[in-house]
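hey so u asked for the seq, here:
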Amino acid sequence: MKDLFKKREGFTIVELLIVVAIIGILATIVIVSLREASDRARSTKIVTSVTQIRKIAEDMYIQEASGYESLCWSGVLNESYSDIFITLNDDIEKYGGEVVSCYASRYSYCVTARLTGSVTKYFCIDDQGNNTESASNACTASNIACE
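ran it, structure tokens below
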């Protein structure tokens, strides 16, 4: 009879299962938040690389008689112009993006890159100083501007 009224120590299986379930739910929330933060960080790196292209383009406009024309070749960055274009393009691809269009004339240019985490998020820069994030690729051969 003494053994029946003896106080038990420890946790029951139900209590342990509840704790494990709560930990699982919290871990899921944290993992989803980390993924979103990681995508935002990667997209920020892509935006930084595209902004570097703007700085090179402005130097090119000052130094080259042809203005911005050497910036792009057949709708993509002209990697033969400068090794830095190869590096920037590689950085953009390394972080999950892609330079999807680059068009230039003597007096204008636009460059668009796809951002991380979505196939419908783009970042565009142009000679007018526009920094545009949009759901479509606005930079085309017939429209050398971000709109």
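The chain has one domain: 16-134. The helical segments are 13-63, 83-94.
lmk if thats what u needed
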